[in-house]
Design goal:
Pfam families: DNA_mis_repair, HATPase_c_3, Mlh1_C. This protein has 25 helices and 23 strands. It is an alpha+beta fold and about 725 residues long. The chain binds adenosine-5'-diphosphate and magnesium ion. The site of adenosine-5'-diphosphate (ADP) has 23 residues, from helix 3 and helix 5.
């Protein structure tokens, strides 16, 4: 035998038993994926315990601290030592029990798992106990609160019920922890789970807040109804279009399954399907059922629009396959297909029945248009109406229209003039940029943008130059054009790149260059807030020189100048540096002593300029601003600022060639965000603040049609 050869073959590694704690940690990871999954288990325990009030407190997306307090039945002191051991449960003692179980959890694994990946503590009191007890767990066992102390349950003061606290989740599984860095996303998921349970348990009061925050982010009353809960948590726009259906099946006079469904009708068009599925009161996922329900809507909703559906299904517990996955999230059950088909058929019939009435509704709305638009002229509204107000207005409009009042509206005047009517853009789902990255279920997302728009106050200013500029705007104001913009109805964006939108005023349709309008708007708003502009902080602050250099490098230098590019950069940086204090005081443009751009003027809340244009903006400030005369300086600075703020990409000659490349997802999201800003922020701001100068009429606002004329044309078709 050749001893060398024997050396080459590796000796078999000894097989070792994995450390038990490691096994448990791995097993725990299968159940507790993230803070929201821990919370789901705890919520179910609290609901099993008959709680009517559940309070959740969260720190750092639940990773640092996640606490749930309930007023349920509590846990007996004698049970506390084994509470967090694996397979301890009060809900199951023999295998045959498994099939009868209707409560939420049933394997006694949740608390055990949590104790393996976090610091777990419990304070609990049953109704009959004289005091509460506090315990700490680690790796399934009781541990002392501090070294040297006893691990026995410690008597303490407390209310009936149980408070479970999880701290430092995944502290001993660093890879898992690092995969969950985004605490706001984790928080959004927590809110999502809570929202869904709050819908399903409308009789129970839920609250959720961040630790240290005075007000909750989610709060529901006790003894509410499903419909009301949906309205509160998903917004009145969903509730308004909500239908309800019950589907069940009886065999031999015995109910074999039953379901209750709340679903939106064809008038509701969400951006993304919201689907809540509860089977036997447990939040579960089933991609098959979801797909089947989405299919019901494909025929009746426009492309890109999505419904809201909440389905609560009760089936014989024996027919649920609980062993599919330890988290029991994606479920399967007996006769799944049959039941799904039956539910979907009923939903389809309900939607069809309802979609016939839509035609009627649509027409009455049309008839109401003109009348209210003249009323609106009288009222001279200042504010953009809020969601609810407009909804009421619409109701009124409907009433006006259906009542045979003296003012009969002729059919050729039936045009859309209510702000609330559907716009072209609503057919293409567009997302509020501030919602990107969040879960789609932010309760108030619908109502937010308008509610948040606040007054832009005119700053007090004693500089003659500024007052001169302000009165110039007032003098230059074109009355009709301003009125058109003030009272217009947004129809849709025609071309984002060329900045073209359609708006309607009275019965006329105008094509406007929203870019040009926005530039004027930003100039006026900048001037309006002169010396009092909010600051848009740049974190970390970029270097002024680097930014200017980027822009100068991209520029073609005319042959006449003798200056090199780096000379030009030096000059511009010097010019701006030497006026640091003025730029900061008047325009909130802060440049630090060592040349970092710390903040930019924020002209309009909720609107962020395209920061790709920042280098260009800073560079242009050098040559384009007249730094010698006060009035000119302010005006030219504000014009440059407005130019920087105008939506859209950097316009340069070679941009044409680069846009031919395929649009990336990011571009797409960017352009969606931009559309959203144009419709929901810029145009509403124009309504309120723009004193439109006549110059805009020459090129940027064109009347392209008169609707009554168009209607005549259509009538002939
Ligand atoms: P399971 O819910 O599957 O039984 P858990 O580990 O989630 O397993 O919980 C173990 C046991 O602890 C439960 O069976 C229940 O008796 C008790 N328990 C947990 N949370 C609560 C609570 N909030 N109120 C009362 N009892 C609870
Ligand atoms: Mg449980």
């Amino acid at each position: 035998m050749n001893p060398e050869l024997a050396d080459e073959a590796p000796a078999p590694a000894p097989i070792r038993r994995l450390q038990e704690s490691l096994i448990n940690r791995i097993a725990a990871g299968e159940i507790i994926h993230r803070p929201a999954s821990a919370l789901k288990e705890l919520l179910e325990n609290s609901l099993d315990a008959g709680a009517t009030t559940i309070r959740v407190t969260v720190k750092d997306g639940g990773l640092k601290f996640l606490q749930i307090q309930d007023n349920g039945c509590g846990i007996r002191q004698s049970d506390l030592p084994i509470l967090a051991e694996r397979f301890t449960t009060s809900k199951l003692s023999t295998f045959s029990d498994l099939s009868k179980l209707t409560t939420y959890g049933f394997r006694g694994e949740a608390l055990a798992s949590i104790s393996h990946v976090a610091h777990l503590s419990v304070v609990t009191k049953t109704r009959t106990s004289a005091c509460a007890y506090k315990v700490h767990y680690s790796d399934g066992k009781l541990v002392p609160a501090q070294r040297g102390q006893s691990e026995e349950p410690k008597p303490c003061a407390g209310n009936d019920g149980t408070t479970i606290t999880i701290e430092n989740l995944f502290f001993n599984t660093p890879t898992r922890l690092s995969a969950l860095r985004n605490t706001s996303e984790e928080y959004a998921r927590i809110l999502d789970v809570l929202t869904k349970y709050a819908i399903h348990n409308s009789k129970v009061s839920f609250t959720c807040k961040k630790a240290g925050s005075p007000s909750p982010d989610l709060s529901t009353p006790s003894a509410s109804t499903t419909r009301h809960a949906i309205k509160m948590l998903y917004g009145p726009s969903i509730e308004k279009d909500l239908l309800q259906v019950t589907v069940n099946e009886n065999t031999n006079n015995e109910e074999s399954w039953s379901s209750e469904v709340y679903l939106t009708n064809v008038n509701y068009q969400g951006k993304k399907t919201i689907f809540l599925l509860f089977i036997n009161s447990r939040l579960v996922e089933s991609s098959r059922i979801k797909r089947a329900i989405e299919n019901v809507y494909t025929g009746v909703l426009p492309k890109g629009a999505a419904p809201f559906v909440y389905l609560s299904l009760r089936i014989d517990p024996q027919s649920v396959d609980v062993n599919v996955h330890p988290t029991k999230k994606e479920v399967h059950f007996l006769n799944e297909e049959e039941i799904t088909v039956q539910i979907c058929n009923t939903l389809q019939a309900k939607l069809a029945e309802q979609s016939q009435s839509r035609v009627f509704e649509y027409q009455t709305l049309l008839t109401g248009g003109i009348e209210t638009s003249s009323q609106r002229n009288d009222k001279k509204r200042k504010d953009v109406p809020t969601e609810t107000q407009t909804a009421n207005d619409e109701d009124q409009e409907n009433e006006h229209a259906s009542g045979s009042g003296p003012k009969k509206i002729y059919s050729h005047h039936k045009v859309r003039t209510s702000l609330k009517d559907r716009t072209l853009d609503s057919m293409f789902p567009v997302v509020n940029p501030s919602q990107i990255g969040k879960e789609p279920t932010d309760p108030n997302s619908e109502a937010q943008p308008q509610a948040r728009s606040r007054d832009v106050k005119e700053s007090e200013c004693f500089l003659t130059s500024v007052n001169q500029l302000r009165s110039r705007i007032a003098k230059g104001k074109h009355k009709l054009l301003t009125e058109i913009l003030e009272k217009h109805t947004f129809v849709g964006i025609v071309d984002v790149n060329r900045c073209l939108s359609l708006i309607q005023y009275s019965t006329k349709l105008y094509l406007v260059n929203h870019g040009a309008l926005a530039e004027e708007l930003f100039y006026q708003l900048g001037l309006r807030q002169f010396g009092d502009l909010s600051r848009l902080k740049l974190e970390p602050p970029p270097s002024l020189r680097v930014l200017v250099k980027i822009a100068v490098d991209a520029e073609e230098i005319s042959e006449e100048t003798t200056l090199s590019k780096s000379d030009i950069v030096d000059r511009i940086v010097e010019t701006l540096q030497s006026r640091r204090s003025m730029l900061s005081e008047y325009f909130s443009l802060n440049i630090s002593e060592d040349g970092l751009v710390q903040s930019l003027p924020l002209i309009l809340r909720d609107y962020t300029p395209n920061l790709d244009k920042l280098p260009l903006f800073l560079m242009r400030l050098g040559p384009q601003v007249n730094w010698m005369s006060e009035t000119d300086c302010f005006e030219s600075f504000l014009r440059e600022l407005a130019y920087f703020y105008v939506p859209g990409p950097i316009i340069s000659d070679d941009s044409v060639s680069t846009t031919t490349e395929q649009e990336t997802d990011e571009d797409l999201a960017g352009s969606k965000a931009e559309r959203w800003q144009i419709q929901h922020i810029l145009l509403p701001a124009m309504r309120r603040y723009l004193a439109a100068p006549k110059s805009l009429l020459d090129r940027d606002v064109v009347q392209i049609a008169s609707l009554p004329d168009l209607y005549k044309v259509f009538e002939r078709c």
